[in-house]
């Protein structure tokens, strides 16, 4: 069953790698051949990194480990793949959003651009075993927490009365 786990994450990994590649393509200045190589290198790096951290039965387990993050620091996996095509970290920071979080979990790949951006789902597939609704519910609430914690209603809100 060793290789089985690896097979299962191909869709999630290729979705995530294709997304980062699209961001690079949109920024311009990187050739198609380079982009293709970047995507393949990134998929390879992610596959290696996630190999023993992929739990389809408990999709949120290891989520932090699999999270790809650019936040004033370049994610090592993206950095590694970019290095293969000769892109420096400086260049990457120019091409990619300065704040990017990408969650690569079994059955769901989602991202957020900017610290206060909304979370967008790139890929979602039903979970075997029919626990889908419950699972998604808990996932959403756990991702929403950072938002709720951040935005308490402003004090001026109470003073806006309609006369």
TrEMBL record:
<dbReference type="GO" id="GO:0005634">
    <property type="term" value="C:nucleus"/>
</dbReference>
<comment type="similarity">
    <text>Belongs to the BTG family.</text>
</comment>
<dbReference type="InterPro" id="IPR033332">
    <property type="entry name" value="BTG"/>
</dbReference>
<feature type="domain" description="Anti-proliferative protein">
    <location>
        <begin position="96"/>
        <end position="115"/>
    </location>
</feature>
<dbReference type="Pfam" id="PF07742">
    <property type="entry name" value="BTG"/>
</dbReference>
<dbReference type="InterPro" id="IPR002087">
    <property type="entry name" value="Anti_prolifrtn"/>
</dbReference>
<protein>
    <submittedName>
        <fullName>BTG1 protein</fullName>
    </submittedName>
</protein>
<dbReference type="InterPro" id="IPR036054">
    <property type="entry name" value="BTG-like_sf"/>
</dbReference>
<dbReference type="GO" id="GO:0005737">
    <property type="term" value="C:cytoplasm"/>
</dbReference>
<dbReference type="GO" id="GO:0008285">
    <property type="term" value="P:negative regulation of cell population proliferation"/>
</dbReference>
